Amino acid sequence: MEKFTFFYRTESPFSQWHPAEFVVSRVPFNCSEQFMMYQKAKLFKDEEMAEKILLAKSPAEQKQLGRMIRKFHKEEWEMHCKQFVYDGNYAKFTQNQHLLERLLETKGTTLVEASPTDRIWGVGLLESSSQIRNRKTWRGTNWLGEVLTNLREDLISQMK
C-alpha cells in the first residue's frame, strides 16, 4: 500500500513558500516560490517583472507579481514549470543540509501537497480529508509532490 508524506503550510520544508536561502547562477533566492516566479518572468522575457520578483521579500508578493507577467502563455508555461520547480528545489535542498535531511526522511513515501485550494500543484484536499489517502480520489494533480518525490529519489541515487 502506498504511503504518503503530506505537507501544506509554509512551515513545512516542502512548501514552495518555506524560507530557504540558495543561489542559482549567482542569483540569490529566499524561497522556491521566488525562484519559480523569477524563471516564469525570464521564460516570457519580462525583465522588469523578473527584477521586481527578486526584490520582493515575501512569497505572497512574489506569487502576485508572477501573475502579472506580460506575454504569459499557459501552454508554454506548462511545458517548463515542473523543470523550474525541480531546479529550484534541487538548489534549495542541496544548499541547505537541514532541509535535505528532512527530505531524505520521507524515503519510501510519496510527497503530497495537501492544499484544499490548489488542484494543480496540490491535490485539492486537506490532510484531514478521508479522500486524500487514495490517489484515485484526489481532486488535483499533485505536481509539487510529484516533483519533490522525483527529486528525492534522484538525490538518493546520486548518493550511492
* Terminal CA distance: 26 Å
Q: Looking at the structure, what is the overall shape? A: globular
- The radius of gyration computed from the alpha-carbon positions, rounded to a whole number of angstroms, is 16 Å
What is the H-and-E element order?
A: EEEHHHHHEH
Instruction: Report the major sheet.
Output: 2 strands, parallel
Structural class: mainly alpha
Residue windows where pLDDT falls under 50 for at least 5 positions = none
* Count of alpha and pi helical runs: 6
Strands in their spatial order, largest beta sheet: 1-4
Query: What's the mean pLDDT score?
Result: 97
Provide the β-strand percentage band. 5-15%
Written account of the structure:
The chain is mainly alpha-helical and 160 residues long. Helix content is 47%, strand content 9%. The protein contains 6 helices and 4 strands. The protein has helices spanning 32-43, 47-55, 59-66, 74-94, 97-104, 143-159; strands at residues 4-7, 22-24, 27-29, 110-113. It has a two-stranded parallel ribbon with strand order 1-4. It is globular and about 50 Å long. It starts with a strand and ends with a helix. 39% of the residues are buried. The mean pLDDT is 97. This is NADAR family protein. Residues 6-155 form the NADAR domain. InterPro entries: NADAR, YbiA-like_sf.
